[in-house]
Structure formats: structure tokens, C-alpha cells
């Protein structure tokens, strides 16, 4: 519900064009990004051409994630995460495993 609230306030307050959304490779961060910016997610839906123009790339990148201090901070293998979140580009992630 918190992410939905963020999404609502962002959709109603911004007029600036968005170019790219970068998220951590951690599942919870990807979920938050997708839930907070649903109007920008480029999915394989039946959106109009005009709506598709408003979509932006979602890119996962290791450099913006939290540190890995404990086993619970580790991420799943990239191929597993990429299968679940096909709308996110994982090409910048160099290693399959943490």
C-alpha cells in the first residue's frame, strides 16, 4: 500500500519526462520500483501507441544495492530474478550469483 501511495502522488505531481529508472538487483527493490511507477512500466500489454511512448526502461544495477553483510542480504541468481521480472533489463549485471 505504501508503494501504491507513492505511485499515486508521483503520477499526479510530475510533468518532467522520465528517461530511465534504475533499481537494485534485490527482489524487494525491484518490486518497490514496479509498484511505485506502474505508469512507466513497459509491459507486453495492449496499451495504445500514445501510452507506450510514456513507458521507460527499468534497469537493474548492482552498484546501487545495499551491502551484503549477511546471508539474508544476498540476491537470488539473476536468471531466476529476470524470469520473474521480464520487464526489467538485467544486461548490466555481470555475475549470475552474489
How does the SSE layout of this entry go?
Blueprint: H1 2-13, E1 21-23, H2 27-36, H3 49-53, E2 58-60, H4 78-84, E3 88-89
Parallel strand pairs: 1-2, 2-3
Structure, described:
The protein is mainly alpha-helical. It has four helices and three strands, in the order αβααβαβ. The protein has helices at 2-13, 27-36, 49-53, 78-84, and strands spanning 21-23, 58-60, 88-89. The protein has a three-stranded parallel beta sheet, covered by helices on one side. Helix 4 (78-84) links the parallel strand 2 and strand 3 (88-89). The longest helix has 12 residues, at 2-13. The N and C termini lie far apart (30 Å).
Briefly, what is this?
The chain has 98 residues and is mainly α. 35% of the residues lie in helices and 8% in strands.
Percent of sequence in beta strands: 5-15%
Parts with pLDDT < 50 across at least 5 consecutive residues: none
Number of strands: 3
- Main β-sheet, spatial strand arrangement: 1-2-3
Q: Helix share of residues? A: 25-40%
Alpha-carbon distance between the termini?
Answer: 30 Å
Order of helices and strands: HEHHEHE
Oligomer: single chain
Keywords:
single chain; 98 residues; mainly alpha; three-stranded parallel sheet; 4 helices; 35% helix; 8% strand; globular
Amino acid at each position: 500500500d505504501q508503494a501504491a501511495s507513492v505511485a499515486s502522488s508521483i503520477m499526479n505531481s510530475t510533468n518532467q519526462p522520465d528517461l530511465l529508472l534504475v533499481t537494485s538487483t534485490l527482489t524487494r527493490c525491484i518490486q518497490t520500483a514496479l509498484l511505485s511507477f506502474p505508469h512507466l512500466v513497459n509491459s507486453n500489454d495492449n496499451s495504445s501507441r500514445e501510452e507506450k511512448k510514456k513507458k521507460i526502461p527499468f534497469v537493474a544495477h548492482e552498484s546501487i544495492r545495499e551491502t551484503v553483510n549477511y546471508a539474508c542480504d544476498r540476491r537470488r541468481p539473476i536468471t531466476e530474478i529476470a524470469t520473474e521480472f521480464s520487464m526489467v533489463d538485467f544486461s548490466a549485471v555481470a555475475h549470475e550469483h552474489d
